[in-house]
Amino acid sequence: MTDAWVALEPGADPDERLGLLRRAHETFTSAGRVERPVRPVVAASWRRSARARVSPDGTAPVELANDDLDAYRDSHPLARAMPLFRELMGAYAHDGEHLVAVCDAFGRMLWVEGDARSLRRAGRMNFVPGARWAESSVGTNAPGTALALDRPVQVFAAEHFLRPVHPWTCAAAPLHDPYTGRLLGAVDITGGDSLAHPHSLAFVQAVARAAESHLALSGPAPRADDDTALLYALGRDEALLVAGGSKVRLSRRHSEILVLLSRHPEGLSGDRLLCELYEDESVTPVTLRAELSRLRRLLGPDLLCSRPYRLTVPVEADFTVVARRLGSGAVAAAMGAYAGPLLPGSQAPAVVRLRGRLEGELRAALVARADPGLLSDWVHSPWGEDDVAVWQALAEVTSVRQHPSVHARVRALEAELRAPAPVHGTPSPAPVRANPSPAPASATPPATVLQRPPA
Question: Is-above-0.70 flag for pTM?
Fold first, then answer.
């Protein structure tokens, strides 16, 4: 196959491929073995689905309805792109008896529109607004897998993990904030076997790019005035600084430095920065001075000064917004601003402490709040999918009858915690996170409110 992301190569027989895939699906779900002709991207997704204890005979949970759904999607950044989606995809969907779907970054369907007959059929498997189609919830499917991989993907028939979805084929592409690169959701087209063609994947990818351009033109860009810079460091290893009307994407080390300096507007000495940044005590001050010199050339001398090292303008960072909202008890608003762990790949001691404290406080607040929607958002995120404490909290506020997959996932995670340590030389499973002790409250300096870009 020339393109691993396209379901069928030119000239392939859909009926023949469907038969092979159904047998491969049965083999995997019964014996855990992947056989040809399953594509590597689908095989990896099936393994993630099995790891998440998704039942192949399950269905998507509907988490938002009526007024809650209307209020949520009306305030979502992708609402501004819906007229464009309808213009570009509406006629194509109606003429081809397809559906157009748009979901948020957690895989929750915001809009599902298109051919009336197809809508009725899709409704029987809960492919409806308000239902969660994250890969960790319902297994392999185009929008959920596109979000998991952050790239366009096509899923054909029995490549879907759920058997009730086998009659469908879909293609989806992720959507990003045009200024910060933050994942906003995905756009999907779903229908019959005719969508198993390279053109449908290219089409939905082009629509996603057009939507991102539309968002850039139709909404205000994140702005930093002369007195304030904006720093985005959640869910990304390379932070983004908006200052003086320009955007600067920082290296990993420069991201760590900016995070620390933004936390200490009074400045830090070279010795203090050295201790906060480097695990290796053999790193010399010369190394740090070279990094700071490169950072000053990048930012300009008017933004970074020395003796002590400090920023000359206040910095409003996304992680301070989360901490401040938690401090005021605005848990839902804090969760809405949380784009993931702070510089997740960083091993700088001070960043590791700050990342753990912020995550611990947010998790504790979510558990205490006991809101099923917020808890579900956490456990279906990449950083929360193995978080047993939050899964347990979600199980406590949901019934086994309505959400059997939640309770099955809790049992599986608890079994993993009880399992004996692996014998030396054998591979160990992915770590399961137990309930940590509550983290101490973090102090954040007063600052102006940073809007969640670009909404």
Answer: yes
